[in-house]
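Action item from last week, closing it out:
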Amino acid sequence: MKMVTMRTAILTVCIHWVMSTAAVAQQAPTVRVVQTSVIVNEPRGDADVVATVTPGAVLELLDERGSWYLVRPPDATPSDWRTGWINRSMVEVLDAGVSREPRPVPTVPTRRVPAQARVIDRQRGTYPGIETTVGWSLLLDSSLSDISDLSILLGGPSLNDTSALGVAVAITENLNPWLGVTVDIGVNFFSQDLVGIEVFDFKILTILAGPKFTYRQADRVAPFGQLLIGGAYLNASVPLVGFSESEFNFVLQPGGGIDVVLSDGVALRFGFDARILFDRPFAGDTTNQFRFTMGITFRSNFE
């Protein structure tokens, strides 16, 4: 009788052990949400949103595709969605046996995060979606040296400074951390007076666009290069004799520079461009210009 009882006890213990082991083995791995995020119906950023989850929520992990996890709410959790995709940067993976109870999330006061604290974010691929730069520009044009000869011809002094000052505005939409598309609008002016009379006036307006490549692995500096193409409107006049002439040129402008990051939203930009104006495209008639820029870059829409 004792032998039967002992066998029954051993058999009962073995059955419980097998069942508990199988339950743990069958339990799907879980992830915990660390930032408020959305659940989308496809593993891409522009997919339709099916739900919003808050920090602390625990979800079952079903599959993985690139930087996306396929998840679903736990069976015991009431919800109006079944499965969806969440970016892996928004969750932390838990062991299969971790309790589904959400971990308390401390309340952090809302504040701007300084650029030097974005090391973890940068590793996740965070970058400004839009960059808007407004600044000052200095244009050097070898053809403006002819103005000095004109001044001498009219009995005036030789001109040592024939650079054209102006302003420049550039807007970049970044497609990913290293590639963006830039639209650059600039205008520069030069004029010369002799004895209070304007003898020469020059202005140039450019509208350019093209790809921009940025290296973002440093905390405070972001060097970049770009290749812009577009058009230029030039006007030169000599009011003293009633002369004025305008023309449109095709422009090719390779260049680059560096952004010095001051905070999440602001950076200082220093740039240099080598501009080629084609007086007659494909005919070999060109004018070379060099443009220096300095301005403030406003960074927004972080991805």
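Closing note: The two ends are 72 Å apart (CA to CA).
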